[in-house]
Input
Amino acid sequence: MSESATSGAGISVAVAFAGMRSAAPVTFKAGCPDCRERFELAASAFRLAIGATSRTTFYSFTCPECGAAVRKPAGERIVELLTGGGVRTLRLHSTL
Output
């Protein structure tokens, strides 16, 4: 879509997005259960998997201190925060 493209209301894309600023990168506080370090990670460092149940819904990241693969359960509020912050999401489907 070019800047001269218009929406159904007849305004250009450039006008619709005029004045918008880029958003600050989202970071999340996290901790490693292996080395016990606490740190902040960018949304791009996380992966969120949403399954059919709470047992199959989790987020994961790699500890920047010790390199451990960390996987933690994600309840509804965590899912909401991570998806709102731009974390990449994988929806798991059952194979019935």
